[in-house]
Amino acid sequence: MFLPKKKKQSIKLDIGRSSPREKIKKNFTSLAYAILAALFIRSFFFEPFSIPSGSMYPNLKVGDYLFVSKYSYGFSKHSLPFSIPVISGRLFYNEPKRGDIAVFKTPEDNRTDYIKRVIGLPGDSIKIKDNIIIVNGKSINTKKIGDEKYKFFDVELIRETLDENIYYDVYEFKKSPTFLNTNDYKEIIIPTDYFFVLGDNRDNSQDSRFIGLIPKINLVGRAEVVCVSFDTEIGSFFKFWTWFSALRKDRLFISLRPKSN
Predict the structure, then answer these.
(1) Do residues 225 and 206 lie in contact, with contact meaning Cβ atoms separated by under 8 Å?
(2) Is the pLDDT of residue 216 over 70?
(3) Global confidence as pTM
């Protein structure tokens, strides 16, 4: 008597397949890790900024996109997004150097980002007389480089050289606004943990002459490099079809550190 052979049952293993719910969970986890990594880099290493105003011409132009190092001056609550008050005081502090271009929260509201050049350090005496900056009784060396145009203003391109033989260029209007005295500033002694900052576009800048000294706690970081720049009168970073025509090809990866002789 012959019994019929049983048919072999094939067993299919569902290896590597995930349910839709598991796929969503994995994608969400990957996205969360990516966001956390980006926030970590932004808070403790480098943060991108764009320049919306002309207060730092000729060195920073409207439409510049730059990176700011967050670790240069240590970390405070202003290192974190929305200035979350997790960090008390300032950790791993390094004092800015004279000539640095620094990003900070303006003391007017402790919220808005400003970018200016550090001129006066804690303990310095500082005053401005007829456009000449006098630090600790000694005038900063200036030299006229040439004449240029800023918008419809005639300006002089001036080179300022500091004690350490580092230099940078600034703009001075040939005719200063009559309603605003930007050429003189009475002598002050900068207190501990405060800094005196100026815009490189000296007659078109809201800086320590008007908003006061910058407290150490408000420092965000040091401007390092312009990565890319777009002429905002032609296009912008957010309109990809204008990129080529608006791109300032001479402003790719421009260092923002003062030069040295």
Answers:
(1) no
(2) yes
(3) 0.85
